[in-house]
Write a structure and sequence with these properties.
The protein has about 80 residues and is mainly alpha-helical. The protein contains 4 helices and no strands.
Length: about 80
């Protein structure tokens, strides 16, 4: 899947982060924030995506995902 060319690694990482968070699978997020940052995502973009997701998937799922992102990327991650 990661070799498909329709989406960049950056975009694929963002979609994966949102999908896992939206399904409540924050425990599976670990490799994706770092991969996304390496591919050009910013911490702010990841944070905003998860904040926006809170309106649709629920604040509990978004908050759990933000905690994972903060743990992985460090305290600088907003949220």
């Amino acid at each position: 899947m990661w070799l498909r060319s329709d989406l960049s690694v950056r975009d694929r990482s963002l979609v994966t982060i949102a999908a896992l968070a939206g399904m409540g699978d924050a425990d599976l997020l670990e490799p994706y924030p770092r991969r996304g940052v390496e591919a050009g995502l910013t911490r702010d973009q990841i944070s905003e995506t998860l904040t926006q997701l809170g309106f649709y998937a629920g604040w509990g799922k978004a908050t759990k995902a933000l905690a994972v992102v903060t743990r992985i990327l460090g305290a600088e991650a907003p949220g």
